[in-house]
Design a protein that fits this description.
Shape: rod-shaped
Distance between the termini: 105 Å
Order of helices and strands: HEE
Structural class: mainly alpha
Number of strands: 2
Oligomer: single chain
Helix content: over 70%
Strand content: 5-15%
Length: 75
Amino acid sequence: MVGKFERNKDTIQELTESAATHVGKIAVIVAGAVRDITREIGDWVSDGIEMREAARKARDDSPVGTVINAEFDQR
């Protein structure tokens, strides 16, 4: 026969192991979510940088002045 003390010890041990398992699984979920959110924010910032650079290149490629007789007038 198992005594009351040993039964209580076994119950506490099982509860502790179960809690540790669940907390570990939750931590993995949270870490994965943080990783995914960080990746999405990084991609969003990269998109913004690419758009800014494309706009700058388009601005730099635009002709300065007006075209008169197929030549640029620098007035």
